[in-house]
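pasting for ref
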Amino acid sequence: MELELRHLRVLCALADAGSVGRAAARLGYSQPAVSTQLRRIERHLGEPIFERGPGGVRPTPYGAEVVAQARDVLARAGAIGRRPASARPRRTLRVAATNSPMLSGTVSRVRTRLPAVSLSVTSVYASSRIVELLEEGAVDAAIAADYPNRELRHSAAVRHRGIVTEPTFVALPARHRLRHCAQVQLADLAEDAWFVTPDDGAGWPGLFYDACAAAGFTPVAVHEFLGDQTQLQSMIADGLGVSLVQPTLRPIPHVVVRPLAGSPLWCRYVLAWRPGTVTDDIAEAVFDSATAAYRELAARAPHLGDWAARTWSGTGA
């Protein structure tokens, strides 16, 4: 068997859709045909590309690399024979984005799906400020964050749609006393120093302090930190404190990432846009791109996969 472009399209459709059924519908194939193609591809490559579970399919760490290569090949193949479109006017989509690791993957996918659209991306930490920029018409779309029971508030001039709701994990020094725990009780971190990001105008860090109070303690030391994630992880690795982090975070050496027992804290990422400026097809393309980018990140985070497997199995271990 030799890999063909149609095989690569199957892999990308599975990664984007998250299930064999949805991928088959997008491709116009039958579900058994997609399953058969996947088995042949995996047999050819010699390793599983997707993990099957009650929630559908998601790429293995090896599969995430294969899917990324497949996207690159398909993008290059699609560009063969195309003449430069410099003479044609390009639409500029102004995007604001909060601190989210899915941004890079989202932007690269949007550029592939919408070649006539030029993205202008601005980093904005506070979700409250992102809403203001949308209301003012200073940006057209955004990736923002909110929390359960604290949904993003805005006028009718703005719409939003949830991309993913994820549990909050904790990053610890690799020599931390709780490093071997599969899950960490928040109360067991009562004596640790914390790195906490500042007010985001959507409920953070108040939710963190509420969770600590519910666990029976007040943090003994809090360092407000808003900066490069690598710098944060370096300080954690040096034993200077612990921090709540996104579960897709890829830890550097000497840092471990663990779920919080009972998942007391959750965060939702949303796509927000101005419907009078952004057409439905563009909003859908950005949403699909962000969803696919998150799935790829999740596939590369074994600690998130382990947590999901325990949660889906209902063991709660």
